[in-house]
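Practice record 12: protein with zinc ion.
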Amino acid sequence: MLNMNENKEFTHERLTDKLQGLSEKYSFLKLSYIGKSLLGKPIPMITIGDESAKKGVMYVSTHHAMENICTHLMVKFIEEYAECISNGRYAYGINTRVLHKMRQIRVVPMLNPDGVEYRLCGVDESNPLRERLIKYNMGSEDFSHWSANGRGVDLNHNYDAYFEEYKKLESDNNLTPGKTKYSGEAPESENETAALASYIRFNEDKINGLLTFHTQGEEIFYRSRGKEAPKSSFIANRLSKMTGYALSEAEGMASYGGLTDWFIKEFNKPSFTLECGRGINPLDISLAENIYFKLRETLFTFPVLV
Ligand SMILES: [Zn+2]
């Protein structure tokens, strides 16, 4: 039995140590970095799968610092998949060694390491933005409900998808840099989104579908402003059956500037936002095991559905 990394949240440091350890243990796990956060933290990515694989998918987690439980889900999957491959085990009727040959899976477990650090450790004197950040945080030094990146931009509103329209809504709602929902000065203005979007553009031919993990609500979003990519409905229905999650459509402010919106608009390929678990954010890390159990089939099966 694999353990769910104790009941402790991943900081960027713990995550990097863990992924380094796993990539040393399993030579077929490739650890790379897609870029750096605003505060200079390398954003790790694990690639699993043969380079000659014909198709690939990408899993992206923790745009929002409050949703860092999703980092656990990604690490748990990487660990379990690696163990299956090395032991030649099957998962959901899939020979994992064959899957490894046929599909590449790229996993970015923590897109927003700075936000996670603020949330878990607060913002100390060494941060040159400290004063400004406290102002953004409504004068409070309590960052436990911070979701944005290192300078108050909500990364999942910073992609180039209906950005100008969102800007209008934003000014109607007096949204400024802060813990959530502020979209930034321009699409991909943030290091983290720019790094991910550039990586995806450059490797687009190897990414046939995308899953992005958030909390909470047990919902799956797969349409963007009424538009959906080919095969999306079919896959969404399958994912819904596997997870028990409901299919939903984003409305209002949630329907602008997200990774799923951008991926569908830009590449017309299936992308799904999974709102994992139930409760009030941040979900307690002790829930990770149960959430993973519901998502496990999706994580193993999605690569063969695209
Ligand atoms: Zn989220």
